[in-house]
Amino acid sequence: MNPHALDVLEFPRVLSLVAGRATTELGAERVRALTPRRDRDWLDAEHRRVAAVRAAIQGDDPWHPAAVPDLRQPLTRLRVIGTRWTGAELLAAAQLLRSSRTTRESLRDERRPSIVRAVLAPLVDRLLVARNEEDAIERTLLDDGSVKDDASAALRRIRRELRAAHGELVRILERAMGRLESHHRVADASVTVRNGRFVIPVRREGRGEVGGIVHNVSQSGATLFVEPPAAIEFGNRMRELEIDEQEEVDRILLALTDGLRPHREALVDTMDALAELDALFARARYANEFGCAPAEMVPARQGFAINDGRHPLLLAQAREDGRDVVPFDLAMAPGERTLLLSGPNTGGKTVLLKAVGLFSAMMQAGIPAPVGAESRVAIFDDAYADIGDEQSIAASLSTFSAHLKNLGEILRLATGDSLVLVDELGSGTDPVEGAALGWSILEELTRRGATTIASTHLGTLKELPAQVPGVVNASLQFDAVALAPTYRLIKGVPGRSYGISIARRLALPPAIVDRAEERLPQQERDLAALVEQLEKREEELDRLEKEASAIADDARRRIQEVIRREESVRTREREAERNARQEARRYLLDARAEIDRTIKDLKKQQADAVEEAAREARRKAEALAQKQGEQLDRLEREERNAARRAAQRTGGGGRAAEPRAEAPLAIGDAVEVGTLGGKVGRIVELRGKEAMVTVGALRLTVDPRTLRRTQLAPVVPAGTPVGDLPEVEASTEIDLRGMRPDEIDAMLLQALDAAIRADLPAMRIIHGKGTGALRDRVAELLTKESRVRNFRLGAWNEGGNGVTVAEFA
């Protein structure tokens, strides 16, 4: 876009605002250098990169750019063989290598969203990892850039000798100073350095007594700084050591520099990639801070739609002041090429014009714009703006002449893909002539197909939409009572000036205001009345729309409340039925226990007939208990179905999934056994209306209708053989090893039920030795079980203390 339009729109200020979010000067420079482009591939790639960085700086482990030192000048010198970097420059190089390595590791982390790793990969791949060179610099240099003593053996020796010579020299000078006569001494004097040599201060009259070399004189001339003869030799020795030290330091720095020299191009590329990442971070941070929703970019001729648009500079100032910005919505259909904006001053027309231009400029520069969701921002080949007073005394241009100069340039260059923004069209001259010129200009731009937004106060131009296809009126709402702007955009309705209303409000004499109204042309008064009626109707429609929206929201809330209450009632009904059936099952089991006791008594009196009757009674009791278990399983299925339906209703309004016909059960399927409270087993055989299922150590024959296929794997106790188990109605043992005491109750009781139904005389319960907790829990349960006649620990050949044998009545 042309620089004049960008300056008028204050685009450089927006760039500075975004650049302020960068963490380095190199990144900020990249942002300030951005310019709008229309290359669609570049735009899509750039906004994908910004979206990837937005994803990286959000979440539990937000990414933050590392420091990027500016090494452009040192890297340029590195081309020349023999050049040596300073310690500070080498430390900056180590920081650059460290930043490159940590950034590469962070952005390649598998925990990052896939968009981060995929989109930023080309930048991350450019980052150099040279750990040896990085460590070498950090081992050699201190934080201030000086070389460490242990950087080399020679340097360590030289500095040791230098410290010893320094100490001896100071002692010599202190002795020399101590031998001075009191009238030759300087009060509070001490050994000092002048011109690189160690000296002592002496009064001028003591010069002959001390001898040696004078290296400096005080400002008053009364004090001489003298190097005594005894110190000259040590001073020379120190100077030699200092020269040796500097030569060794230079050699070390040159070696470190030479280590970086082969990586010069890679270091340049690394610094460039890190600066680019920082520039992307600045744009992503700006987008997150100012609520910039992802917007679709569309060709200029397809129109645009701005939702919740906020002027970026006004929004930034409002955030600093703690105020809110009133957003605007503006949409132009493909057939609408010109928007004629009218209304009173201070209504926000200029802000809206600049905001629309800035949104496109920002998006075309790769910066998210402060717009709401589902916005569509147009891509223009150029933007032209005639906004504000550009009067120039030097160029002999009046305000009107400056406007005409800009408009002439616009008419010469604007195309059907351009954006034209004109503020106060037709102003600065006679209203009749200004309106005629404005009419012709807008008509030509509309015919050309340029996207034009123009503001005006001229009433004649408000009639343009009725005569020129593609032109549409719009206004910024004004509170006629408070005489204050609301900044709400109304499309399709021209605005009123409110000049006479404001004059009346500001207490101008009523007679003068009335005469002014009478002086208005009848056409103007009729148009103002029509616009006032349209505004009132718009306000009424807006009120009705808000009421309808509130009613709809209330209806939706009530529907959700009814659904919630209905589900609550159904849940309570199922809970009540479950409790009742559990109580019935408990009564039946108690009845069976009573039957067992009665049978025990009868066995003492009669034999076979009583035994057969007892078995029949037990079977009936077991059948009734099993029936209650099936009903409980049905309740659980209903609860799961109800929960699934509730999830579908609250799943965002999407279509519920269609039920799929479930495949018939097959051998090897993992299933939940309803008669065992949902325990997981596996089908080993299907025989007509019966299914053989293994549950742990148990093998049961059940009705297939009580089985439900599951993805859970059945628990197979340790030591239980897997394969074709013998066909028995129940197992003579159960293995509980590896389970916690609070997990064995249901499994043990179910095994006891199966064993008793199969008329087994006894059962081995394997619990292992361990801490004895399982053994104690088994004993506690068997003690409470009336169907168990006796239980004991296993004999030496039955498993010993790791087994309990339960004998049934």
Q: Report the biggest beta sheet as strand number plus sense, adding barrel if it closes.
A: 6 strands, mixed
Please report the distance between the alpha carbons of the first and last residues: 98 Å
Helix fraction bin: 40-55%
* Backbone structural class: alpha/beta
- Total beta strands: 23
Number of helices: 24
Task: Give the C-alpha Rg.
Answer: 46 Å
What's the mean pLDDT score? 82
Strand content: 15-25%
Low-confidence stretches: 391-396, 652-660, 717-728
- Taken from the alpha-carbon principal axes, the silhouette is flat
Strand order of the largest sheet: 10-11-12-8-13-14
Topology:
Elements (H helix, E strand, L loop, with lengths): L2 H6 L2 H9 L5 H8 L7 H17 L15 H6 L9 H21 L6 H6 L1 H4 L6 H10 L12 H26 L13 E3 L2 E7 L3 H4 L2 E5 L5 E5 L1 H32 L3 H26 L6 E4 L4 E6 L2 H10 L6 E5 L5 E5 L6 H16 L11 E4 L2 E5 L12 H15 L4 E5 L8 H18 L2 E6 L7 H4 L3 E9 L4 E8 L7 H7 L4 H10 L2 H82 L4 H42 L20 E4 L5 E9 L2 E6 L2 E5 L4 E3 L23 E3 L9 H13 L4 E5 L6 H12 L3 E6 L9 E6 L1
Helix pairs in contact: 2-3, 3-13, 4-13, 6-9, 6-13, 9-12, 10-12, 21-22
Explain what this protein looks like in three dimensions.
This protein is of the alpha/beta class and 809 residues long. It is 50% helix and 15% strand. The protein is built from 24 helices and 23 strands. The strands form six sheets. A six-stranded mixed β-sheet has the order 10-11-12-8-13-14, with helices on both faces. A five-stranded antiparallel β-sheet has the order 18-17-16-15-19, with no helix packed on it. A four-stranded antiparallel β-sheet has the order 1-2-4-3. The N and C termini lie far apart (98 Å). The relative contact order is 0.06. The model is unreliable at 391-396, 652-660 and 717-728 (pLDDT under 50).
